[in-house]
Amino acid sequence: MMRFNLSFTAVCVLGTTLFTALPVTAQAQKVRATGVCHLANTAAQKVIYNGECRITQEPTNYGSSLITIRMGNADPMLFACRNDGNCMHGPTEVRMRDRGNGEASFRWKEGGNSFRLDVEAD
């Protein structure tokens, strides 16, 4: 268990941005946006959510970004990412592809299923 905590902390220390046009400032600023999210279980070919969402990106003091995505009334999804697009969602490794203009795709495998979350900020 100690090893996971150290690994997760290391991932949180490194980060990437969902919104590539953020100015670099002396103080970390929280960025909030609304948009459209599409969450699917690609292994089962099922759409889990398709609709409006709220996106928050919060840079940390260590240069990482914590991305929070709220879809409807469900619990928020949290992603801690590094600059190379590798992220963590809890103990699960996630690959994030930044498509620019506030758009990104997150892909991961969990419990024998494959998931994809596409985010398009307004």
Describe this structure in words.
This protein is mainly β and 122 residues long. The protein has one domain: Lipocalin (Beta Barrel). It has one helix and eight strands. Strands 1-2-3-4-5-6-7-8 form an eight-stranded antiparallel beta barrel. Strand 1 (31-41) and strand 2 (46-59) form a beta hairpin. The longest helix has 12 residues, at 2-13. The chain is globular, with a radius of gyration of 14 Å.
What proportion strand?
A: over 45%
CATH T-level topology? Lipocalin
User: How many distinct folded domains?
Assistant: 1
How far apart lie the N and C ends?
Answer: 39 Å
Largest sheet features: 8 strands, antiparallel, barrel
The secondary-structure class comes to mainly beta
Top-tier CATH class: Mainly Beta
Sequence of secondary-structure elements: HEEEEEEEE
Query: Approximately how much helix is present in the residues?
Result: under 10%
Number of strands: 8
Radius of gyration: 14 Å
CATH architecture: Beta Barrel
Number of helices: 1
Query: Strands across the major sheet, in which order?
Result: 1-2-3-4-5-6-7-8
Mean pLDDT: 79
- What does the overall shape look like? globular
**Poorly predicted parts:** 1-27
Attribute tags:
8 strands, Lipocalin, globular, mainly beta
Chart the SSEs and their pairings:
Layout: H1 2-13, E1 31-41, E2 46-59, E3 65-71, E4 77-81, E5 86-89, E6 92-100, E7 103-110, E8 113-121
Antiparallel strand pairs: 1-2, 1-8, 2-3, 3-4, 4-5, 5-6, 6-7, 7-8
Quick synopsis:
The chain is mainly beta and 122 residues long. The chain has one helix at 2-13; strands at 31-41, 46-59, 65-71, 77-81, 86-89, 92-100, 103-110, 113-121. The protein has one domain (2-16, 28-121): Lipocalin.
